[in-house]
TrEMBL record:
Protein name (record): Cytochrome P450
SUPFAM superfamilies: Cytochrome P450 (SSF48264)
Record-level Gene Ontology MF annotations: heme binding; iron ion binding; monooxygenase activity; oxidoreductase activity, acting on paired donors, with incorporation or reduction of molecular oxygen
Coiled-coil ranges from the UniProt annotation: none
Gene3D superfamilies: Cytochrome P450
Length: 292
């Protein structure tokens, strides 16, 4: 699968013939969440769901997102969203399995923020708790109010995950955690509740990673050399030739690098929460927020 960069990456992100790879439908758990947020949808469904997310974040002035010490960014954002119960652990566990095919292997080590347990090397690992009630190979612990998951043979509301025991257990645990978070939010299995959860998940590991990387590097260096979300995927619906001459066939998937000026994406799927992410990371915004 080719990795697209620079001008070609911008072309892919702004070309409507390149779409996000679809996810299977789901009626509950992590499969329901993926199938109900703008992140994994296209066309009118994406537009409608994105509008719900934009509505949520547009009510929050970025300047109000000042973290208290090493408070996890999810805790800060949840408070600004009017959520009074603690949800950070729930969101972190959902985030581990949010993107299809990335459970377990996408955990980000070395992110030192409040609410993370120390790893063996002394750094805290966001979203990874010591195993308890889960097979030792799994390495995650259910958040409060979520039953322990052992083995991970069943997945609620969707297809069984791939990627081994860790990925399977991450998804099963995420299924239970999604249902618990819906209860905490007094929500339902609808797009508005999915949008609220999606906003929290999108602000989880990437923002925590950004905060950690800014400890010893400038924002420009981080976004250029070590962006918190390094890439995204797109699928071509028609054959095309990108700037630089790379030919992409219809149905082919490409990896699009999100670095430098493209760190928050581009085009109709550009991250609408850029100003809020920067505020959570303690970076002053020098240009107007983009909610397009």
């Amino acid at each position: 699968m080719p990795t697209i960069r620079d001008r070609a990456a911008l072309a892919v992100l702004t070309d409507p013939t390149f779409v996000v790879p679809p996810v299977p439908p789901g009626t509950s758990g992590i499969a329901w969440l993926r199938a109900s947020v703008g992140r994994f949808s296209t066309g009118p469904s994406h537009d409608r769901r994105r509008a719900l997310s934009v509505e949520i974040i547009s009510r929050i002035p970025p300047a109000s997102l000042r973290r208290a010490g090493d408070e996890h960014p999810v805790a800060t954002l949840a408070r600004a969203m009017g959520i009074t119960e603690p949800v950070t652990d729930l969101v972190r566990q959902i985030a581990q399995a949010y993107r299809p095919g990335t459970a377990a292997k996408d955990r980000q080590p070395g992110i030192r923020v409040a609410g993370a347990e120390p790893a063996a090397d002394g750094d805290a690992v966001v979203g990874v708790e010591p195993a308890a009630g889960v097979d030792a190979v799994v390495g995650v612990e259910p958040a409060a109010g979520v039953d322990a998951v052992v083995g991970g043979d069943a997945v609620v509301g969707g297809e069984p995950p791939v990627g081994g025991d860790e990925a399977r257990a991450d998804e099963v645990l995420a299924d239970a955690t999604v249902e618990r978070l819906i209860e905490v939010l007094a929500g339902a299995h609808d797009e508005r509740t999915a949008a609220r959860i999606g906003v929290l998940v999108q602000a989880c590991d990437p923002t925590a990673a950004l905060i950690d990387r800014l400890r010893d590097r400038s924002p420009a260096t981080v976004f250029r050399e070590d962006p918190p979300v390094p890439a995204t995927k797109r699928r071509a619906t028609a054959a095309t030739v990108l700037p630089g001459g790379l030919a992409v066939e219809a149905g082919e998937e490409v990896v699009v690098a999100l670095d430098g000026e493209l760190a928050f994406g581009a085009g109709p799927r550009r991250c609408p929460g850029r100003a809020h992410a920067l505020a959570l990371a303690g970076i002053a915004l020098t240009e107007p927020a983009d909610h397009s």
